[in-house]
Structure formats: C-alpha cells, structure tokens
Amino acid sequence: xxxxxxxxxxxxxxxxxxxxxxxxxxxxxxxxxxxxxxxxxxxxxxxxxxxxxxxxxxxxxxxxxxxxxxxxxxxxxxxxxxxxxxxxxxxxxxxxxxxxxxxxxxxxxxxxxxxxxxxxxxxxxxxxxxxxxxxxxxxxxxxxxxxxxxxxxxxxxxxxxxxxxxxxxxxxxxxxxxxxxxxxxxxxxxxxxxxxxxxxxxxxxxxxxxxxxxxxxxxxxxxxxxxxxxxxxxxxxxxxxxxxxxxxxxxxxxxxxxxxxxxxxxxxxxxxxxxxxxxxxxxxxxxxxxxxxxxxxxxxxxxxxxxxxxxxxxxxxxxxxxxxxxxxxxxxxxxxxxxxxxxxxxxxxxxxxxxxxxxxxx
Length: 362
Prior knowledge:
eight-stranded mixed sheet, globular, 11 helices, 21% strand, alpha/beta
C-alpha cells in the first residue's frame, strides 16, 4: 500500500494582526486579529474554497499565503519549501509557481497599458521569452486559453467589459505557468450569466493545466460546484472544513448553517428556512472570549465563553470547531438546489457551460 502524497500547500498556524494606532504621533493602542491561528492544506490538483462573510479574513489569508502581505505568525509550506522564509530575491523567482486572480479586475489592470503589454509584463519580469515576438505569441496563446482572440492585444482595459477584464486577469495569472492560484472573489463583480462562464472557465483551466486553487468567495452555491473542499471562516478562525458535499449537505457548525440558509433558492416550489443570527458582529479588535461566534449563536452555552473550541473530527476529512456535539443541523441537501444553480446544463448537474471561443464574450 503506497503512502498518500504530501499536500502541495500546507498552512500552519497562520496569523495576521494589524496595529490600531491613535494620535498625531501614532502610537499603538491595540491590534486587529484579521487571521488567528489558521491551519489547512491544499492537495495537488485540488480546489479549496474559503467561505465567510465580509471581514472574516478570507482575502487576508490569500494574500498572506502568497506573501503579498507578511504574516504575523505561522508558516506557509509549498511543495516542501518554506515560503515564509524566502528572501525577497528568492520570493521573486518563486512567484512563477504561485499567482493571484484579484477581485476587482478594473483596479488590477493598468489603464494606460494595452492588454498585450499587461500580459507581457510578467514574462519580462520572469525572463520568459527571448524577444518581443515570442512574448506576443505567448500573450496571444493566453488570450486563446481564456476564450478571447488575439485582437484584444491592442485594446485597453477601459474598452472591455467586466467579464472580459476578469478573463484578462486570469490570463495574466497564468502567464508564468503557475501550479497554484489564489482566486479572490473572481465572480463577485459580475452578473449571473457571466459568473457562470467564469466558473466554467476556471474549472476547465484547472482540469487542463492541473492547477491547485484557493477559491475565495461568499457564494456558497458556486463554491460547492467548483471546490473539492470548503473551509468556513468567521472573525479570522476556521469554523468548519471538509468535503464540499458534506459541508453544504451536512453542516456541523451553526455558522455554516446560517450561511447556507442565506443562499437564494432558485426553485420557487422550495423554501429554505432563513436563520437570522442574534446580536451584532463583534469588533475584530476585541473579539469575544472562547468561541468567537458565540455572541450570535442561539446554541451558545456558558462553556462556549470559556473555551476556544478546537477542530474536532465529525466525519471523514470533515472537522467542526463547535463544542456542541449534540446538535443536528442538516436539513437540506447542498448549498444550492438540486438543479445546482445556473452552472449546470439541463439533465447534468456537473456539466459546465460550453464556452464557444469563436463567439464574442461580454
């Protein structure tokens, strides 16, 4: 019997704290714990979804994993290399293996550069391509991979739609041939029909290029479709992590159940019972003791205020940070409906939308 392959990405005790300062001459008066002792793994060719409300720490984790911001504590191990220990020169070379798709494509693209210049820039920085002609050819191939023609090379971002710009951001992330992608809310700024196309594109690229991915989103229906596993975050801590079908179909944490209840139900014949949290969102500079979700949880007990709940195993590869092992939370199958939102073709729940590369993309 062969041993299981080690994970491609291993995050150990990752924390990121931001100082709170006051005064004309700034002095530290506190800190915001945006991410607090988070650990997880991503296997080769796997998509791990990071779910949670705004302010839960999803984007901070993605940026800290890539060292776009420096972690306050913890380690990030990628393919047995300690990313947190790399020098600036080593990190620059290492960028070829890990890239990011940013949330706002308009802000992520230089409006004064053409698409050809934008796609050539990472190639120049990493020394890919012997001359301008080779880099232009590579740029045209990247556009083709995201269902755009080479005609877009001479355009500027302002002359393109939101969906087209998001494809350019994806193409730029793929320019240097990475193994791992952090996709930070790649569909949040798009309308529903374009969201479906981008999700289908990401799935196709993952399968064709063998990518691993950290998919950050608050859209649990899209996340269930694309992700192999889902980690649910609240105030910088993991509340639940496990296979996407288990987290959505058999939630073991009250916060996960609350998020699922907020997912719109496309079938008018079905009604999902909406679970409204009690209380207000705590101040991240002064989080509650014990379980950080306890101030909004209707199941909280006195023990929840005294004990920080560890992740306990509740199923195969399924863990929950809840002290209440007696709760039964599963009511519905999946974060979406049985038809699985607009991402599936009729009669096939897992079949992605077919992308016609000869058709103009909005």
